[in-house]
Automatic annotation (TrEMBL):
Residues annotated as domain Xaa-Pro dipeptidyl-peptidase-like: 12-141
GO MF annotations, alphabetized: carboxylic ester hydrolase activity
A Pfam match: Peptidase_S15
Family, per entry: Belongs to the AB hydrolase superfamily.
InterPro entries: AB_hydrolase_fold, FrsA_esterase, Xaa-Pro-like_dom
Keywords tagged on the record: Hydrolase
Gene3D superfamilies, per database record: alpha/beta hydrolase
Protein name per the record: Fermentation-respiration switch protein FrsA, has esterase activity, DUF1100 family
Amino acid sequence: MQTRDFPFTSRGTECAAWLYRPDGDGPHPVVVMAHGFTGTRELALTSYAERFASAGIGVLLFDYRYFGVSGGQPRQLLDIGSQLDDWRAAIAAARGISWADPGRIALFGSSYSGGHVVRLASEDRRIAAMVAQCPFSDGAATMRVLPPVHAMRISAHALRDQARALLGKAPHYIPAVAEPGQLGMMNTPDAKAGMEALVPAGSTWQNRVAARIGLRVPLYRPGRLAKNVECPALWCVTDKDTLCPADNTVKWASTAPRAEIKRYPIGHFDIYLGEDFERAVADQTEFLTRHLLD
């Protein structure tokens, strides 16, 4: 396995990426990966990438614009349209790799990006396989499990940030994760500790995000597009998820023609580490090798 920097351009902005090349001449399949809500590539996703590459599958793991070491201003701006464009640019870059098989490009998304890959696979019929891990499927369902006071507080900060954007001013930021009762986009009991457990020394991750995303979360419902995902698709659902309700995710996933659903009796952040990670990555590696290598 070889790893190197592999920057690509998305609508004029350079996105940082790591490219994992499996042993052998190829051509090899490639899994395109990116993280969830404010996450950067080094937050546990390298463990998945290494496992897939060791199994003979290449990986392109990237940071969105505005995050990590990718370009773009203002920083920490979570813009759904821009992130989807970055995914499309990453997929195009993967198809152009000299040792890659452009007919065997797969997608792996986790949490917020788990919703992105459902949308992308629904629109790109050339995608060979998809993995959505603890995916954000339905903003309306997520909002229903939030305390009303918290939702109102987030909305107030989001409106403030949106007003600043319209006036050409710098973003108004709020924490991405916080303790229960404190201000943060995610303040469930496991959110702050769960996120911080993924952050390695020297990480580029910052615990802040432009608050305007709070206006968009309720309207983003990528799970509704699952019925249009024609490729083999694996949903890894965390049953004790306090951010992305499991039953809602399963409802949407079940509409996909070639869906495979794995359920784990754990929380949203548990799947990245320890024995829970080992179970999930074993299921994902088996799924990807079956559809990309067999």
